[in-house]
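I'm stuck. Please check this protein.
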Amino acid sequence: MAISRQKEGNSGSDKSVQDRLLDAAEELFSEHGFEGTSVRDIAASADCNIAAVNYYFGGKNKLYTEVWRRYLLVMRDARLASINNVMSQNGGKPQLEDLLRSFADAFIGPLVDESKSHRLIRIMAREMLDQHLPANMLVEEVIKPTMAAMREALLRICPSLQESKIPLVVFSIVGQLIHAARVKAMFEQTDSPDMPMLDLTKAVNHIVEFSAAGIRAYAEGKTE
């Protein structure tokens, strides 16, 4: 069924058809998962013709990928910028804690953005349990460039650190940050008066200090 790019949809919104579809898909995928969301649901929520999904994105799978890419590219660029910025300070050799804190702030920022954080965390959790992204997408577009930048930065700050330890170091930091963001979101959704609220600033500071100590121990050969 042919549709017109100009005429498709007339919701009165200034957003393009593509943006309306992406917004609707993001909300529905986070609420109901990939399998629980139909093209008809997405089109109805975006106030678009069903054919628009295929016309603009080539189907539900590719639309799902583009929903993720909107997040991933912004997050990747923010992380790379944080590393580059901190490494330009103090003659290119900042303190280890400065690097880790800058990276942590850039990493966790999108996860606690009040406008989208709960949606992002839900869609991340669903993808972890039921993968629908292309197998190499996260690796090629996010993990490899971020890991390369962190490897260079860590070796410059801690030249005695074994390069083989760096992937484990970065994965440990990332895992702690993701868990902290998820716990914060979970605690905020409970009505239990006995459930403590997580102070994310204190949690990030702990992660930075804990990780810096571990990295220095590796660099000094105090661990195997």
About this structure: Confidence is low (pLDDT under 50) at residues 1-12.
